[in-house]
Each structure stands twice: as structure tokens, then as C-alpha cells.
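Hi team, as promised in this morning's meeting, here are the two structures we talked about. I've kept the exact order from the run log so nobody has to guess. The first one is mostly here for context; it's the second one we should focus on when we meet again. Sequence first, then the predicted C-alpha cells.
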Amino acid sequence: MIIRLAKKGDEASIARVHVDSWKTTYKGIVEDSYLETLSYDNRKSMWEKAIQAGHEKSCLFVAEVEGDIVGFASAGPERTKKYKVDGELYAIYILKDFQKRGIGKALYSKVRECLIKNGYKSMLVWVLADNPSRNFYLSLEPQEIDTENIQIGNQAYEEIAYGWNFIGV
């Protein structure tokens, strides 16, 4: 396994991981009609913009196994400014067949290093309450900061913010 910064040309693979991970992770949680609307093209365009933005204030890492991108993680400034944290882990997604192999922890570690390097002191992540991967985040010993209801498609879902007050060494 190799963890590296995303670069131009990775967009389609990141989009595939993003869409496919949503469809497997949230099957039975998020309504099927919403999952069916997820598109590789829309996500590819989103990730093209993220890669073009660079890594000055944010970071986007990919995990490769035998040359194929099987996971990614992104992070940057905390978006709401409502909490006493400055960084945010936006996403970690790993294809189902590659989960539970240490890739998530490796991606988390790289994101944390990147945020520290960019001057961040703390971080949070939002996780759907029914996300089967929630235990992954709990294993990293965060504090629960808040809960909110968010709209995905036509349904409301509970989302939990977990935080780390000090991410430095």
C-alpha cells in the first residue's frame, strides 16, 4: 500500500472510490433513490477542483494498492467556524474490499501530519450516526462535540461531530 498526495489525473479514480463507497457504506441507511443519483462525472469534476486548489490549506491523499487507487482522505479548514477547532477531516472513503486492512488509519495519519504541517492545532469530523464505519473514528479516541440533522435527498439523518482538541505530537 502506498499513501501519497493526489495529483492531476487521479480525479476519475477518486470519483469512482467516492461513489462506490457511498453505495456500499450507506446501502440500507440512505435511501436508494438518492444513492442511484450519484455520478462519477459529478464527483470527478468536484475532485478536479480540489486537486487544482493545491495543498496550501488543505490536503487530499490517495491510497494505492498494486497501482490502483482504493481509498482517499481529504481535510482542510473547519467549515462552519462554530466550534473551537481549526481543522476538519472532510472524508475518508475506502472501497469495501480494501477496508479493515489499516488503510483508513494510514490515511488518517497522513491527513493529521498535513494539517499539523499547515499550522492546524485541532480537528473534527462529521459522521452519520448510522455509518457502520463510525467505530473506526471512535477507535481514534475523539470527543463528541455536537450532533445535527442533515438532509440527504428527501430524508433527514443524524450526523455526529467528533473532535480532537490537540492533533500535534
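And here is the second protein, the one for discussion:
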Amino acid sequence: MATGKQITTLDNEEGQRLSVVGDTYRILISGKETEGKYAVIDMLVPPGGGPGPHAHKDMQEMFYVVDGEIEFKMESGPYTATKGSFITIPPGGEVHSFKNKSDTVAHLLCTVIPAGLDAFFQEIGKPVAADTFLSPPELGPEELEQLKATAEKYG
């Protein structure tokens, strides 16, 4: 990554790639690089992938669908997002989740304000190579409690 006073560049081979819940997330810019103001995460979600229901107390989360199709579930009802769709979830927003119900990989760009979700992913994720997907981990009661505690730490 090349950085300067105002411009940051990142080549396709750069950025930390992590397996999180079976998806592969690439941290494009982290909160460490933005003084915690925001983070941008490139998300590849395989068929059947996506996180379970959750909410962010003090974080705004925005998604742009680069390619594919993703079903968002929100308290207000489901929304099928396709290429070019944009979803924004305000701070203190409702419980939401998303799932790739198609048979191809979905590609999302996620921005969070302030940063924090990136650090959560760095703590719970496993480093992977580009275009690599790991199976979602099996979580027993003890692992779920640990995940919940880690999630609370990052809001």
C-alpha cells in the first residue's frame, strides 16, 4: 500500500483477507489508517454465505452490491439486493442479516462509520488467500459466548 498526505492506493493483491463466517473479507482501509473514522471492507459471499442477525449500536453500515445477489433481512422485511443496489443501516439501526441465496458468489463493498467492524473481523477471522473460502466454523455454546463477548467489544 502506498500512502501519502492525501491519497492512499491499494493494488488488487494488497489488503488483509480474512475468512469470517465462511465469507472472505478484504480490509481495504482499516480504522487504524483512518484514525477510527471509517473502514472499508470488500466482501465475497459464497452461495449460502452471510452473517446471522445482528445490530450495531453506534455504527452506520453501508453496502454496495458490486456483483451478484444478496437477500437482506431486516425488521421491516426482506430486500433482495442485486448489482448496483445500495443499502444503508443507520447507527442504532434495526437488527439485520444477509444471505447469498444464489448459486454464484456475491460481491459487496461495505463501509462502516466509525471503524470497528474491521477490527472485529481481524480478531475473529482467519487469514486466507485471494478467492479462498473456508467452511463456516462450528460454534458450540462456549464459542458462541466468546463470539458474543468479542462482538460487544467492537459494538
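Starting points for discussion:
The chain has one domain: 12-153.
Residues 50 and 149 are 20 Å apart (CA to CA).
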